[in-house]
């Protein structure tokens, strides 16, 4: 037993006391104290205790701050669970075994801080933070994604050294409302710093900047010591223009004893003529400096802000930014890094946002907690609409907690602190009360606080919205469902009962090879008043870089051990279950539009095109009609180049003159080419790039690639007059010098995450589609032709397959048909698969590309001539699955370095894939690093291929993208190069 006197903070047992949201913590505000502060990041002494009341040991190790100890070799490892809590206790209780990190370091308090108020700021700690200075209690904080500040008056002395101890308790009552779908970690995730201000200082600044140029700045001055001295005043300056004092307010205020006794308030105003308004396309910012002056005019405190003039309002059922019904092309973003878990740097955040900008996104939901302050600065600067979400998710115990009065304070506290911190960011257009926490009185309390404190922005909460999208009384001004089927959204918008903007807070679940029907969604959104967009779930695949030999996180030492979405040899991207835990939610954590190293997945290109600011609306004989699909910007920031791709000819290019178009306008521009008589199918692409440097993209960055078909393909003119010989074996299988496995029928794909979680994969396995027994019914040989009829016997039914191979001048024509019985009503594919000899390493094709595309995710891949090494065709989804497909392929060649190889021409545009893996290879392993590439190529030519949909969480693909039962026919020619 440890008989040392119990520490008062520990004695409170704040980890099981939801009523205790903080103790000794200063109120949140919007004054940025980062500059001029003493940073305390770096290595701290560290001990990991088994429980918060366990005695401290003798031996210290060290831990890097900011960082989570779960990624720093402590043996307490990351754990992934989606909904379920990692322990069985009911809120507010937690298990006795409760890892507790004790961080300690010495801090030299600058001597020149004498007489000032000294504040410790801890950027974020999960989940309970206890602060001691020289063994004396300084404070307690919860709310794992917002900073906590503590006044160290009386605890430290300027010019002396103090020992700061931060004790972080991993499991607490707060964990029950921080049950977001992500890894569980423990630690200090954002920077720690120490700063000083005068006792009388700017306590808070609230900026209201409207699109008409009206600026109102409200300042609060706090005197830690008591009354306000005579003659002090506040001034403001906006890009050099002095703000005026709101003297009327000051006078009224001076008479109000309640205010002036304790808290000084001042109002400043300006009317900015010809104001440059802020929006996500042109994020114009002004610099505001607010100063607190002593009676003699000297400056006691300064607060700097960047101001964006803009209005957000809901009019009818439209969400308007500066009067425009903007589309919300959003993504849900978690704080994630494959080496540091939850700690992200400024550069990381900037890289995230720059990438999103380049791929057409204009909005972020901070799923599911407030982000680092720097993220909002970046969003202001680069141009994003932000739904700022409070750190409240009680998913596993949602119903109990939403109305539990013990948690009332925590709900209001979390929402209020977020609003107090972020209210001055023009990027923040909506407050969110949290995620997946049912709906109860605690939400209404929080909503009530926000509505009074900040009437300038709407409030949303999915849990309330789900009670009725049009219900006027609920805590959500936005109908913000998650994964609502498109037809439901459409029906609502067309019902005549819609009262609120419909912006899905989550849609199009990006797990694995996914995001089918995204383009269909956007076609509907853009065409339907009442629909305004949504936020794709989600940005990141949260794969943690892991050493395969000891199954430990690589941590900060893993820098550079990945490239292009793939972990270096000896490493892999870990997901749920990979750290030895038996209870977990597997690869559901890998559901982002980027790989763990931020390499874009193919869906990003789809999104970029869907968001295209310039579109080709139509093709007429005299030219094409271009339109401007932005809300605020002209086309002057873009330049263009025309590309004419001929299926059987060269690609021609010509500079494009983009017309001057305001948003919503269209103009006809003449065709830059005379389309050659021959060359077959012809496509015109407008390659749109940035004309100059944008803050998020250098000049020449591709913005979109709109396309129009100028001439259709002619039907293939095969004569089918036999000329030559066809060699097949007894079994009717083609013998060919370049093929190591003859073309056979394929009905299966390695199930995608959507196929698995949507239940299709089980059905396919039950039907035995992965390995049917092939039985030859007949082999009929005639000169230059072989016709083989076979049956593929599956548990679910028998598929009759016919393959007629005709030798013609220079190659083989393969005519195939397959008849699927009604019982096989939704199979992943019907087509041909064969395998080639090694050495054919380059694929050149005419069709959609160059990136991966599937029938319901093909809008962003322009038709043209593309070429890629075979090894680059495959997309390394974390859990191997169907991958690497190319949609709309008309012909391809597969060649060796000496240009020998094979050429295939298809009867019409079809789904093709060329990889190093059989479907069974992919389905047999759980991680990409377990795949052993084959030397040759596995080639699929599909008569029909099922769409991808998003059934891992949300709607499946549409009926039109399913593979129907009945007869499928396809043909192709094979030629040796
Ligand atoms: C939503 C939830 C997200 C995530 C997603 C599935 O229900 O809000 O946090 O769990 O589903 O990936
Ligand atoms: Mg959840």
UniProtKB/TrEMBL annotation:
The protein's Enzyme Commission number: 3.2.1.23
Ranges where the Beta galactosidase small chain/ domain occurs: 725-975
Catalytic activity: Hydrolysis of terminal non-reducing beta-D-galactose residues in beta-D-galactosides
SMART domains in the record: Bgal_small_N (SM01038)
Sections of the chain in a coiled coil: none
Record has Hydrolase as a keyword: yes
Transmembrane segments: none
InterPro entries given in the database record: B-gal_small/dom_5, Bact_Beta-galactosidase, Beta-gal/glucu_dom_sf, Gal_mutarotase_sf_dom, Galactose-bd-like_sf, GH, GH-type_carb-bd, Glyco_hydro_2
Keywords, comma-separated and alphabetical: Glycosidase, Hydrolase
GO molecular function: hydrolase activity
Family in the record: Belongs to the glycosyl hydrolase 2 family.
Protein name: Beta-galactosidase
Record organism: Streptomyces massasporeus
């Amino acid at each position: 037993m440890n008989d040392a006197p119990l520490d008062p903070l520990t004695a409170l047992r704040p980890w099981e006391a939801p009523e205790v949201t903080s103790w000794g913590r200063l109120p949140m505000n919007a004054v940025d104290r980062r500059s001029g502060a003493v940073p305390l990041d770096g290595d701290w002494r560290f001990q990991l205790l088994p429980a918060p009341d366990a005695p401290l040991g003798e031996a210290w190790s060290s831990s890097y701050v900011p960082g989570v100890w779960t990624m720093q070799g402590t043996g307490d490892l990351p754990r992934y669970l989606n909904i379920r809590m990692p322990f069985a206790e009911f809120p507010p209780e937690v298990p006795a075994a409760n890892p507790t990190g004790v961080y300690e370091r010495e801090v030299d308090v600058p001597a020149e801080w004498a007489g000032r108020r000294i504040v410790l700021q801890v950027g974020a700690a999960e989940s309970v933070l206890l602060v001691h200075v020289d063994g004396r209690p300084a404070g307690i904080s919860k709310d794992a994604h917002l900073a906590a500040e503590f006044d160290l008056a009386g605890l430290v002395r300027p010019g002396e050294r103090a020992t700061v101890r931060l004790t972080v308790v991993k499991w607490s009552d707060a964990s029950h409302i921080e049950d977001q779908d992500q890894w569980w970690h423990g630690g200090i995730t954002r920077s720690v710093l120490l700063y000083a201000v005068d006792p009388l200082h700017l306590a808070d600044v609230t900026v209201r900047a409207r699109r008409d140029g009206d600026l109102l700045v409200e300042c609060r001055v706090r005197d830690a010591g008591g009354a306000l001295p005579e003659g002090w005043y506040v001034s403001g300056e906006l890009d050099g223009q002095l703000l005026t004092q709101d003297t009327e307010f000051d006078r009224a205020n001076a008479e109000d004893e309640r205010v002036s006794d304790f808290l000084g308030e001042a109002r400043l105003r300006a009317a900015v003529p010809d104001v440059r308004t802020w929006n996500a396309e042109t994020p114009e910012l002004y610099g505001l400096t607010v100063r607190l002056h002593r009676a003699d005019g000297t400056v006691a405190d300064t607060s700097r802000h960047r101001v964006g003039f803009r209005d957000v309002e809901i009019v009818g059922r439209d969400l308007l930014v500066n009067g425009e019904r903007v589309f919300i092309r959003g993504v849900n973003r978690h704080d994630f890094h494959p080496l540091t878990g939850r700690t992200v740097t400024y550069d990381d955040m900037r890289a995230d946002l720059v990438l999103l900008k380049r791929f057409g996104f204009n909005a972020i939901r901070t799923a599911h907690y407030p982000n680092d302050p720097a993220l909002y600065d970046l969003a202001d600067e680069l141009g994003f609409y932000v739904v700022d979400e409070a750190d409240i998710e009680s998913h596993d115990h949602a119903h109990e907690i939403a109305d539990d009065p013990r948690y009332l304070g925590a709900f209001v506290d979390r929402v209020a602190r977020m609003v107090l911190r972020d209210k001055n960011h023009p990027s923040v257009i909506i407050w969110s009360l949290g995620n997946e926490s049912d709906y109860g009185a605690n939400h209404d309390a929080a909503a009530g606080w926000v509505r009074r404190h900040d009437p300038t922005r709407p409030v949303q909460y999915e849990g309330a919205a789900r009670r009725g999208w049009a219900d006027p009384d609920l805590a959500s001004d936005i109908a913000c469902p998650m994964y609502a089927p498109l037809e439901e959204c459409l029906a609502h918008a067309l019902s005549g009962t819609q009262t609120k903007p419909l912006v899905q807070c989550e849609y199009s679940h990006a797990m694995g090879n996914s995001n089918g029907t995204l383009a269909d969604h956007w076609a509907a959104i853009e065409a339907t008043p009442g629909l305004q967009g949504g936020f794709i779930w989600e940005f990141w695949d949260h794969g943690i870089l892991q050493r395969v030999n000891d199954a430990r996180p690589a941590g900060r030492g893993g820098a550079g051990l990945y490239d292009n979405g793939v972990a270096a040899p000896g490493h892999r991207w870990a997901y749920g279950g990979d750290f030895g835990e038996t209870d977990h939610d597997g690869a559901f954590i890998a559901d982002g539009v980027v790989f763990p190293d931020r390499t874009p997945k193919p869906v990003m290109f789809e999104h970029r095109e869907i968001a295209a600011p310039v579109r080709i609306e139509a093709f007429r004989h005299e030219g094409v009609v271009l339109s401007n699909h932005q809300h605020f910007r002209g086309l002057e920031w873009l330049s263009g180049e025309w590309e004419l791709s001929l299926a059987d000819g060269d690609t021609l290019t010509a500079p494009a003159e983009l017309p001057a178009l305001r948003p919503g306008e269209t103009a006809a521009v003449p065709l830059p080419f005379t389309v050659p008589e021959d060359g077959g199918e012809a496509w015109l692409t407008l390659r749109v790039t940035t004309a100059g440097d944008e803050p998020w993209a250098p000049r020449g960055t591709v913005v979109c690639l709109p396309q129009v078909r100028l001439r259709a393909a002619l039907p293939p003119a095969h004569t089918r007059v036999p000329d030559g010989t066809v060699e097949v074996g007894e079994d009717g299988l083609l013998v060919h010098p370049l093929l190591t496995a003859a073309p056979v029928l394929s009905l299966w794909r390695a199930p995608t995450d959507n196929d698995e979680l949507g239940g299709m994969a089980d059905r396919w396995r039950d039907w035995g589609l992965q390995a049917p027994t092939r039985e030859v019914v007949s082999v009929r040989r005639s000169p230059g032709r072989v016709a083989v009829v076979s049956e593929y016997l599956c548990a679910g039914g028998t598929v009759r397959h016919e393959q007629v191979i005709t030798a013609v001048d220079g190659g083989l024509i393969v005519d195939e048909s397959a008849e699927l019985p009604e019982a096989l009503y939704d199979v992943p594919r019907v087509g041909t698969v064969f395998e080639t000899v090694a050495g054919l390493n380059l694929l050149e094709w005419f069709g959609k590309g160059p990136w991966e595309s599937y029938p319901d995710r093909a809008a962003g891949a322009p038709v043209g001539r593309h070429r890629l090494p075979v090894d680059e065709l495959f997309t390394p989804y974390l859990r191997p699955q169907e991958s690497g497909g190319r949609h709309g392929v008309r012909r391809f060649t597969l060649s060796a370095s000496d240009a020998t190889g094979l050429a295939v021409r298809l009867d019409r545009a079809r789904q093709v894939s060329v990889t190093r893996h059989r479907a069974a290879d992919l389905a047999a392993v759980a991680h990409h690093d377990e795949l052993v590439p084959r030397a040759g190529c596995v080639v699929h030519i599909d008569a029909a291929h099922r769409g991808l949909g998003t059934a891992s969480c949300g709607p499946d693909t549409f009926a039109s993208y399913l593979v129907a039962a009945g007869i499928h026919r396809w043909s192709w020619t094979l030629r040796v190069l």
